[in-house]
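User: Can you help me understand a structure? I only have the sequence.
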Amino acid sequence: MDNEYGHLEIKLNDLLQKKGLNKNKLSHKAEMNWKQIDNYCTNTVTRLDVSVLCKLCTALDCEIQDLLVFYPPEQKN
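Assistant: Let's start by predicting it. Here is the structure, written out as tokens:
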């Protein structure tokens, strides 16, 4: 789904596995709705919420670059 500006991928699912957590445990730890966490896990979020990103980083004890990965647009020759 590359566009001319590239895209972001949310690595929440990978982080949950690394930390040995599931969505239910994270929803309690981050005080977030399970469905919201599921949307971040499946990359179906259309707008990132700064406070949600802060909650996730705090609850998972991680850096923002652990959670978000930017893929630049493919170069067209």
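Now, to help you interpret it: The longest strand covers residues 7-10. The chain has one domain: 7-71. Let me know which part you'd like to focus on.
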